[in-house]
Specification:
Elements (H helix, E strand, L loop, with lengths): L6 E5 L7 H4 L5 E3 L10 E9 L2 E12 L4 E10 L5 H9 L4 E10 L7 H26 L1
Antiparallel strand pairs: 1-6, 2-5, 3-4, 3-6, 4-5
Length: about 140
């Protein structure tokens, strides 16, 4: 890994392909900061938007399952029941802070959307576990 974790940076939302929402895993697509030198992969993170902090699974890199070679940065907010609330926060905020906490795994190619979704569900469990341990250790 090129940077020592945790790493915090500011980003803003950009339009994505909409695939996450279609497969039941909506994401916030973000501008990749020029100075960010993390390896491609899946990470546990927190995202703070308008003073509200969420835990997230973050993808940095290409999306080989959909033949996308261009690097992307996107976050799936975990345990968010009302996406309208998030949309409102994003609409009222030009930028937000992202803290990358821990590397989870490398980028992989999946043979089907179902296999991808199954792995994302495992990643979400891992992120929950990492973040709960961090929150518990800070108390």
């Amino acid at each position: 890994m090129n940077e020592q974790l945790p790493v915090t940076f500011t980003s803003s939302q950009v339009s994505g392909a909409g695939r996450g929402k279609k497969i039941g895993v909506p994401t916030i697509n973000m501008v990749i900061p020029q100075a960010l030198s993390l390896d491609d992969g899946i990470y546990a993170a927190t995202i703070t938007i308008s003073n509200t902090t969420f835990i997230a699974a973050v993808h940095l890199g290409p999306v080989p399952t959909y033949a996308q070679e261009k690097r992307s940065l996107e976050a799936h907010i975990i345990d968010l029941e009302d996406t309208k609330n998030l949309d409102t926060l994003l609409d009222t905020s030009d930028s937000f802070n992202v803290t990358i906490l821990k590397y989870i795994r490398p980028i992989q190619h999946f043979s089907s959307t179902e296999a991808l979704v199954q792995q994302i569900q495992e990643d979400v469990k891992t992120v929950r576990s990492i973040c709960s341990k961090l929150i518990y250790s800070e108390q």
